[in-house]
Amino acid sequence: MSARLGKSQFAMLDKICRTNGGGCSGYSLDRRVMRSLEARGLIQGKLGQEWCAVHTREGLQLWRELTARGEQP
Fold first, then answer.
1. pTM
2. Is the CB of residue 36 less than 8 Å from the CB of residue 9?
3. Beta strands 24-25 and 43-46, pairing class
4. pLDDT tens digits, residue range 26-55?
């Protein structure tokens, strides 16, 4: 998995990871960015609330690594 994320991709992953599993509702927030994160396996629909995006284990791990290294775009 590539650790390279664009500014808007990191911002969306950051927003989703900061919800601590609560997720961000509505794929309409930025469909293109969310689709790209979903295709990379970093986010997914929340079980029973597919309209709500939550991070995957891989997404959370990547977010933690990027945040710890201060590599936010």
1. 0.82
2. yes
3. unpaired
4. 655 567 888 899 999 999 888 777 778 899
Alpha helices in the chain, H assignment, sequence order: 7-17, 31-39, 57-69
Mean pLDDT of the chain: 84
Domain locations in the chain as residue ranges: 7-69
- Residue 37 burial by CB count (10 A; 0-12/13-18/19+): exposed, middle or buried? buried
Architecture of domain 7-69: Orthogonal Bundle (1.10)
Enter the tokens of residue 30. 């930025």
What one-letter code names the amino acid at 11? A
Give 47 or 3, the one with higher predicted confidence: 47
Q: Rounded CA gap, 15 and 68, in Å?
A: 16
